[in-house]
Amino acid sequence: MQSRADDLPTRVVAMTALYLALASVLGLVEASFLPPLPIPGAKLGLANLAVVLALIQLGPWRALGVTLGRVFVVGLATGMLGGPAFVLSLTGAAVAWFVMWRLTTRGERYSAVGLSLGGAAGHAVAQLVVAVGVIGSAAPLLLMPYSLGMACVTGLAIGLAARLILSRLPQPALSVAR
Amino acid sequence: MRRLLTRGDVQLLVILVIATVTAFPASDIAAGYNDGTAVISSPSGTTTVDLDEPATYRVEGRSGVVTFEVSDEGLRCVDSDCPDQVCVRMGLVSAGHPVVCAPQGVTAMLSAKGRQDVDAVSR
Q1: What per-residue string of b and e applies to B18-43 under the rule 16 or more CB within 10 Å gives b?
Q2: A106 vs A4, A110, B118, CA distance in Å?
Q3: What ipTM describes this predicted complex?
Q4: Which of A21, A92, A137, B35 has its CA 20 to 30 A from that of A74?
Q5: CATH topology of domain A4-174
Q6: Which residue in chain B has the smallest CA separation from A167?
Q7: So where are chain A's domains?
Q8: What pLDDT, in 10s, does the model give residues A85-118?
Q9: Which among B5, B24, B117 is the nearest to A145, CB-wise?
Q10: What is the pTM for the complete model shown?
Q11: Within a 10 A sphere around the Cβ of B17, how many other Cβ atoms?
């Protein structure tokens, strides 16, 4: 089902590293320059742009490496490795990846927009659920509507950005989406 | 580019929007009625706060102190020992809108008559 532009391992490894770096930078920029919103874990999800691109161009497993890798890199750089914020970040990334992966294996065709929406929603829900575990009360769940609302908007925006980027890439790299 | 959004994309977007919209009233209903008090939970215990009495509450979180204040407007978080200060930005505690400091493990929410906890949020 998937066709990659070039199955040469070297190229794939290089692109994976590229996306990992991109995801890390996007995550850091977001953490440094954008103030946190008043919802635990809610953010723009800029790093997901790189993850979605990696998912589409390199496949699910490389994309998993990209998203887990960037959580560690950003965690290291922002000094929250191992703390509750790290657990939130890691779970959000893992669930977002899982949702996006499952979307690519469904019969229905989703573009980067659909994948991004799925990833954003998965991330939002996962973070609130983990926050419940971290905090010990069901209070975070009450923030679900705000979190999901953010996911709609950011998922759409990031997905459209991903599509734009993909449409500008020179090689016929595409697999599940365009 | 061909179509801007595929059929699957639109389906997902619609589902997500519906989920968001239905989550709002569901969340408020789940929060229940308020009897004039709020509850601040933290790793160091639970504090019941009387919303009619202006006061300051300093609560021990996981690794620092989170400060709440009751004023004419209600209960809000005014400071926290964490870099993001998300809880301070969250503003007043209100129905369906608890104020949470995730890193410190502290939450403040309005009490529901009868039940103290939300068991489920249906949407």
Answers
A1: ebbeebbebbeebbbebeeebbbbbe
A2: 19, 9, 35
A3: 0.79
A4: A137
A5: Arp2/3 complex 21 kDa subunit ARPC3 (1.10.1760)
A6: B1
A7: 4-174
A8: 888 899 999 999 999 999 999 878 899 999 999 9
A9: B24
A10: 0.73
A11: 14
